[in-house]
Amino acid sequence: MAATLLPPRDTTEQPLTEVAVEFPDNFLLIELCGEFDRNLAEIEQKLSVQILRRGNHLVAMGERPAAEEAVKVLRSLYARLEAGRPVASADIDRELRMPGDLGGGLARASRDGKQIEMFKGGAIEIKTRKKLVEPRTEAQKAYVASLFQNELAFGIGPAGTGKTYLAVAVGVSMFIDGLVDKIILSRPAVEAGEKLGYLPGDMKDKVDPYMQPLYDALNDFLPGKQLAKMMEEKVIEIAPLAFMRGRTLSHAFVVLDEAQNATTMQMKMFLTRLGEGSRMVVTGDRTQIDLPRGMPSGLHDAERLLGGINKISFNYFTSKDVVRHPLVAAIIEAYEADAGT
User: What are the distances in angstroms from CA 154 to CA 178, 194, 245?
Assistant: First the structure.
C-alpha cells in the first residue's frame, strides 16, 4: 500500500497568544463592549482575534501582533469613555486606522493674531452645533490641520474620503468661534455625464440639485431652523461657481467643491476672490472630470502652478481614506487598477 504524502507544515504561522487588560469601571466597561458586545465583535472581525470578558478583564486571543493591537484599541476607546465621549462604530473604525495618540499641539490663529488651542487631550475634534466631527485616517488628520493653518488648502482624492464633509465642518466650527463672519459654498454647475434638459422653477430651483451634497453636509452640523435662518440672512451662501465672478470674499470661509469640473479660467477667477480674513478650501477628484472632451481641468492647472507657494497646502487622499461603505474603497481600487493596465 502506497504511503500518503502529507503537505509540508507551514512553519511561518505565528503561535496564538492571550493579552489581557483590566478596566476598573464596570459601567464604562459595559459601554465599551456595546449592546450585545457589538463593539467587541467589530474589533474581532477587523483584527481576526477573539475577545473574552473575564470579570473586569478583557482578553484578546490571536496572533500576538493582532492581539496586542486589539488591546491598544480597547484602551483608547476606554479612555474616550473616561473623558465623557461616546463610542460608536465610526470611533472604532478611526482607532483601527489611527491607533493610540492622535496627536496634539495643533493651533489656529484668531483674528487678533493670538494662538487658540484647537485640540485638547490629544484628540482632534471639530465642534459644530449638532455633533463633534473627528478625522478617521492620517490623511484626514493632516487635512483638517491644514484647513486651520493655511489660508488656501486643496483636498484632492476619490469620492468618500471626507474632503468636502470635513471642510464644511471646519467652516461651521470657525463660524461658531467667531473667526469668520460667513460661510460660502460653491460648485460648478456641470452635469455628470447626463443631459438634464430644462429644469422648471426660479434660479434657486434650477441650481439646487447641483448643490444638494453641500446642503446635506450643513444639515449634519446645524439645526434645521438655525440653518434656514442663516441662509435667509445670507450668513451661509450656496451658489454655483459662475456666481462668484466680481466678488471679493472677505472674513468668510469659502469652499469650492467638485473643482475638477472648473475650467482654468474659472479656477483663476475663484482663487482671486480671496479677501482679507478669509479661508478658502478647494476639493476635487481628478478621476471624475465631467468637462467636455479636450477642455483642461482648472484643478490640474492649479496643482501645476501653485504647488510651490507658501501657505497653500495640497492634501491627497487614496482609497485607504474612504470612510463610506467598505465596498466604495474596493470599487475605487478596481477602477484604479483598470486605469493602470
Answer: 23, 27, 20
